[in-house]
Specification:
alpha/beta, Dihydrodipicolinate Reductase, domain 2, 2 domains, nine-stranded mixed β-sheet
Length: 396
């Protein structure tokens, strides 16, 4: 395994060295300081240049690369890795433009390499329980779902996390773009993906007044609304900065509903029945269902020490199962780009007062043609060039 990006990637690199099936071969990051931190737990090769990292990997048996580079720039590097004969695990969003969604799918098909998205929020303890409840059929027909991911930050934190200065993606990103932690657990639990998206965004005076000199988008939240492939409708957020106390999820069926939240490490779920759908052996309409990691034996114990309430550990186990045992990942390339496309088109919906956008079926080569040359983006390159979408709605 090679790791590209030593900030977020360092967390996974520490898990990789504990897995007997994985050899951490090399890590790449343009910041020497971050590379030096790897030395505290691994003697793997270290590189500041991606092409050198890839060449070393080709010469020394690297079979997979974990991408933890900048949020919206995974697709081009994923394609380079697959063309070099390596499988790919992408840590964040699959693609930053619709054209990249097309190119990523075609690279997987052309090279025959494996690809998965390392979405981790569905593996938080309460979300694992939510998955169990939904998949048991206890909710009946799933009709509606909600996902809310809250990740605010001060001006200092925002600048500290933007080491390359004013053109770092964190200072430009519209709120719809980081929807993976809100939508991902909904897709996973209900075995569905988005077909249409409509979205709205709301301004934050706090963001404008405290970060207006550094952040180009001052929205406090974006709400996306989707029709899903299983007939359900879903409302979810991007990466919000609103004053809400926790990340939460809710899935509503025609028999019962399940809700989880409080915090990512919460170990319980709330199950609710209607009066006429409550099972006879249940005393109340509301039931608090424990969701301890201890239910999962040795894996549960190991997950307790991993990031994101154990989610990073489960992702690592699924990487091994996929790459070595051919266990199909839920977030294959097609579901991954569908989630990216919901975010991309969600921002265009915000710019057009909630206009409804159809998400292309990226499994269909003919359907890809409509967006093959769509490179619209709100993100600048390192020199501040290349922005082709409005970055923010007018404040007036």
């Amino acid at each position: 395994m090679g790791v590209f990006g030593a900030w977020r990637g360092q967390h996974y690199a520490k898990l990789f060295v504990k897995q007997p099936e994985i050899e951490l071969l090399a890590v790449c990051d343009k910041r020497r300081k971050k590379l030096d931190e790897i030395k505290s737990f691994s003697d793997c090769a270290l590189f500041e240049d991606f092409d050198s990292f890839l060449e070393y990997g080709k010469a020394n048996g690297m079979t997979a690369v974990f991408l933890a580079n900048y949020f919206y720039q995974h697709a081009p590097y994923a394609i380079k890795c697959m063309e070099a004969g390596m499988d790919v695990i992408s840590e964040c969003t699959a693609a930053g433009t619709l054209r990249e969604c097309v190119e990523l799918c075609e690279a997987v098909e052309r090279t025959g390499r494996k690809y998965m998205l390392a979405e981790n929020y569905q593996y938080a303890p309460s979300n694992l329980k939510m998955n169990q409840i939904v998949k048991s059929g206890a909710l009946g027909t799933c009709m509606y779902a909600e996902g809310e991911y809250n990740h605010s930050g001060s001006r200092k934190e925002c600048l500290d996390l933007a080491p390359t200065g004013q053109y770092h993606w964190r200072l430009w990103m519209p709120r719809t773009y980081y929807c993976t932690h809100a939508l991902g657990p909904i897709m996973f639990a209900t075995d569905s993906e988005p077909l249409y998206v409509s979205a709205r965004t709301a301004k934050s005076d706090l963001c404008f007044n405290t970060m207006g000199d550094c952040r180009q988008n001052y929205d406090g939240t974006a709400i996306l609304f989707c029709e899903m492939s299983n007939g359900m409708i879903a409302r979810f957020t991007g990466c919000t900065a609103m004053a809400s106390d926790y990340t939460r999820y809710r899935i509503v069926g025609d028999v019962a509903s399940v809700e989880v939240g409080e915090n990512i490490g919460s170990e319980r779920a709330r199950l609710f029945w209607l009066s006429h759908t409550k099972p006879e052996d249940e005393e109340n309409k509301i039931k608090i269902v424990p969701a301890p990691l201890s239910e999962y034996g040795e894996d549960g114990e190991k997950a307790k020490d991993a990031g994101h309430a154990g989610g990073d550990y489960w992702v690592t186990r699924h990487i091994v199962d996929y790459l070595l045992n051919d266990a199909d990942p839920f977030f294959d390339v097609y579901r991954s780009v569908a989630m990216s496309a919901a975010a991309i088109l969600g921002w265009r919906s915000c710019l057009n007062h909630g206009e409804n956008f159809r998400i292309p079926n990226f499994r269909d080569p003919a359907d890809r043609e409509s967006v093959r040359n769509d490179e619209l983006t709100p993100f600048p390159d390192e020199n501040g060039n290349g922005v082709t979408l409005p970055i923010s709605l007018p404040r007036e």
